[in-house]
Sequence to fold (364 residues):
Amino acid sequence: MPSALINVPRHAKRGEIIEIKTLMSHIMETGYRHTANGDVVPRDIITSFSCRFNGAEIFRADLFPAVAANPFITFFTVANDSGKFEFEWIGDKGFAETASASITVE
Amino acid sequence: MKPVRAIVTVLLIAAVPVLAAEIPQSERRSGFSFMGPDTQAMQNDDTANPGILWVLDGEALWKSKAGAAGKACADCHGDARTSMKGVAARYPAFDKALGHPVDLEQRINNCRTTHQQATPLPYESRELLALTAFLAQQSRGMSIMPERDPQLEPFIAKGRELFLQRQGQLNLACANCHDDNWDKRLAGSAITQGHPTGYPLYRLEWQSLGSLQRRLRACISGIRAQPYAFGAPELVELELYLMWRARGMPAETPAVRP
Fold:
């Protein structure tokens, strides 16, 4: 049951610096662990996160096995226009999740 | 301390030896107060607290039909926000049919097997943790208050005995750390008072939500004793004693702990 928690301010003044916070549910299995029988637990991580605003990419991050489970990614941007943030997480085993949030700039 | 007051204190301690080591009500502190500001902020912000992921899953499970009876939790109990408010704050509770106390996880599984005719969920499974977290969140901010049921008293007493019982290769009782040395540190980590105010909670070390039974089993392994199996009566008695010990403190589920 993958799900995301998104925290984007609903309203902002034009030119204001705003913080975007995202939390995605994921086990982030490193691929370095072994079972009791010695078999490698296959890697299962999110490899890429991106955020588009009104279609244009404004933030991107690559993720690696050292990132903890349920990655919490925050970043800042300048609120210039009203519009929609679209978030995308891509990972191993075909993992692909999206979420979105809207903002009104006055 | 003035000599007279010291004598009175000594006399008081001597008069009630069973309570001598217990933490006075006014000095009880949640594990929350031992954490750094970053971890506290993580718990307080519902969009940064990973425990909320389980709560959301639990809300979906609450409404989804399960088992041969084809019933969802919500079909009998309705909106959990009203029907389950304060319920977790008084668990473990005495089950008349079984004749012993059951914790919230066991209550959920009893309900599943009897009313939904579904298979019980395994301990520490995502589904059971999610449902428990969702129910317990409905009591967030309310005072922990186990029921004043005379039938519970022998089980609280058993739990207290276990809490005070030295065991394992290190020959330590829970009380040796959590009553006597909670203001000190163990390998750089704070020894807390061991009040289970926020379970199931998200432990950064586990990178997952976990139950109070998982925490107790980890502690018992830590003193190099043989942990009780999940669902064992001893663990429920310990849970009951700990909740009774934390009575009056606000519930924090889903808490975050290092």
Chain A has one domain: 4-105. The interface with chain B takes residues 1, 3, 5-7, 21, 23, 25, 27-28, 68-70, 72 of chain A (CB under 8 Å). Residues 4-105 of chain A form a domain with the Immunoglobulin-like fold (CATH 2.60.40.10).
